[in-house]
Design a protein that fits this description.
homodimer, 139 residues, mainly alpha, Arc Repressor Mutant, subunit A, 2 domains, two-stranded antiparallel ribbon, 6 helices, 3 strands, 61% helix, 9% strand, elongated, DNA-binding, WH_DNA-bd_sf (chains A, B)
Chain lengths: 139, 139
DNA sequence: TCCTTACACTACAAATTGTAGTAGGAGTCG
DNA sequence: CGACTCCTACTACAATTTGTAGTGTAAGGA
């Protein structure tokens, strides 16, 4: 389940998926149960205008092909569910991206981190400082 | 000059551009002088197999359309050059991505930063610690 | 048996990126 | 002046990604 891109535009799942893909993942991740295509399609209908069943199916099966969803055969249909939890997904993306960012920009990224942290949530600065201390202590 | 994606695959300019685009930007940024299409094409030829002149032209003009290159009319041709220096480009990407990363992942990213920094270059940890101190002092 | 339902297969559209042909205009050389 | 060369503009096609949806098919139920 290898993502390709991190998009500058959008937010949340839209950074990793197309708009419809994102809505579908959102629905699947919000559901406790596994869902059929029809389930997902109806959820989508609630939110906005009707989506063609086949459209939803195609996109969902593409997500299966990419290893993001898995499907389990029922009598007359399939039940779909994410391969990993949303938390695990976000965790993996965060890890990958953070590493890539530092590999790519190194010292430059460090400079920007402090500003960005301060801008988004100054509390994160303390958290980071704490983490660094712990890391150094363990050596 | 708004980038769309940060690619997980590849490294350097390939994270932002297609393969040929990246080679072309590499050449333009390595050149002190502005360059014509032919200049760039010949540089490309040195590196690998021949590239069609028109191919290089099309890609370069697309980069102009995107606001990444600019072209200046000469008597019989144009001279192309990047709109911003490589350093400014990297600076802007680093800033944008770092901010997006933190907006998107917040505390999660903070956790990964320390590990990533330690893995890539432990010296960056000290640098970061220093930066945090400075930031806090200024308040 | 016939119908409904869910899936499979297929196709098309727009955007992105790489590729390259053709045509035209402008300067050059004989 | 006329033929030639060179550079650009225009155009087009292919592959990939994502959204969209039609048609066919098979299985199960009435």
């Amino acid at each position: 389940m290898k993502m390709q891109n991190f998009k500058y535009e959008g937010s949340g799942l839209n950074r990793f998926f197309g708009p419809l893909e994102a809505k579908i993942m959102e629905i699947l991740w919000n559901s406790i149960e596994e869902m059929t295509i029809k389930d997902v399609q109806q959820k989508l209908d609630n939110d906005s205008k009707a989506n063609n069943f086949n459209t939803v199916m195609t996109v969902m099966n593409r997500l299966v092909d990419k290893g993001i969803l898995q499907k389990k055969a029922l009598a007359r249909s399939y039940q779909y569910s994410p391969v990993v939890t949303r938390e695990a997904f976000m965790e993996a993306q965060s890890k990958e991206l953070t590493l890539d960012l530092i590999e790519e920009f190194g010292s430059l990224a460090v400079t920007h981190m402090v500003d960005a942290l301060d801008k988004v949530d100054p509390g994160l600065l303390d958290q980071l400082e704490q983490k660094i201390k712990e890391m150094k202590k363990d050596r």
